[in-house]
Amino acid sequence: MRVLIVDDHELFRAGLALLLRQIFPDIELLHASTLSQGLNHALGEFLNIVFLDLDLPDGHGCDALAELKESRPSLPVIVISADGSVETIGRCIELRAMGYVPKSSSPEALHAAISAVLAGGVFLPASSIATLRRALGADEAPADTPRNPHSGGNSEISTASELGLTPREFETLAWLVRGLPSKVIALKMGLEDITVRKYISHLLAHFNLRRRTELIVMLADRGIKLGVPPVTDPAHDKSLPAVGRQRTG
């Protein structure tokens, strides 16, 4: 597994690296202290995932996330930030972050969060989930949402059958959670964009939801994990048409 850490505090990067190596002893880590350095790595390296701080010398809050996702739309990004406001968390989810980990988390909570996201799950602060639901107009968890038998701290991966999905729907869900727009998912799966959009509509109807942001919050709340994000190729992102690289929520 190849992971990029973008944070301007060397001590925090070292601590995060230590936690990552405890979970994945063979992990390969790249470090960047600025957004420009992070973008250079992202545009030239095969990576599984990026951990991104929002407070960088040359990055301005959520704009740093937007710029990274604009450059590498297929690269999953986990925000790790000292800003724990629900507004910022919600904005990052809209900008297709795969999850959000406050730096104020305890070492144990940070370890659990990292374990979850590296298993293909979504992590959001528990204190923010109810507020995010209310902001989305979905303050109650869907009653008919399939419950994952491996939720919580367990790192077991869900299957399509456990979630009541077809294999294609499950694959679409995994790419959607990792922050890919539908046109990029279509290219990944070798399908027409209209077909992927139908899969997304089926997924939202299946979980009784209306949009991706609600889906991300639900998956975080349920502890559903979809598998380790695969290595992404920067050359693939460079070849995407402009419409596939647009910043969509």
TrEMBL record:
CDD domains: LuxR_C_like (cd06170), REC_NarL-like (cd17535). GO terms for biological process: phosphorelay signal transduction system; regulation of DNA-templated transcription. Residues 139-161, 230-249 are annotated as: Disordered. The keyword Phosphoprotein applies. Keywords: DNA-binding, Phosphoprotein, Plasmid. Residues 151-161 have a biased composition (Polar residues). It comes from the Bacteria. Residues 2-118 form the Response regulatory domain. The modification 4-aspartylphosphate is found at D53. This is Response regulator transcription factor.
